[in-house]
Design brief:
54% of the residues lie in helices and 0% in strands. It is built from 3 helices and no strands. The radius of gyration is 11 Å and the shape is globular. The chain starts with 10 loop residues before the first helix and ends in a 15-residue tail after the last helix.
């Protein structure tokens, strides 16, 4: 999770970190992925974070995913 929030890391490294958090399927990773969705400048990182949250599918996940009716 340190790499995911570290803007000195490359976009690729942050994207891979988001994907890895999703692979672990640990609900403790949801806030980190949520932070990436809301603040990471890279669209690839934000997309990987959304996929990670969807994979984890924790009860806290929905608060980080935008409501599709507002898109």
């Amino acid at each position: 999770t340190t790499v995911l929030g570290d803007m000195s890391q490359t976009d690729v490294h942050r994207e891979r970190a988001a994907a890895a958090i999703g692979e672990f399927m640990d609900p403790n990773g949801v806030p980190h992925l949520g932070a990436a969705i809301s603040s990471d400048p890279s669209a690839a990182v934000r997309a990987a974070a959304v996929r990670g949250i969807a994979r984890i599918n924790a009860s806290t996940s929905s608060s980080f995913v935008p409501d599709s009716s507002r898109l």
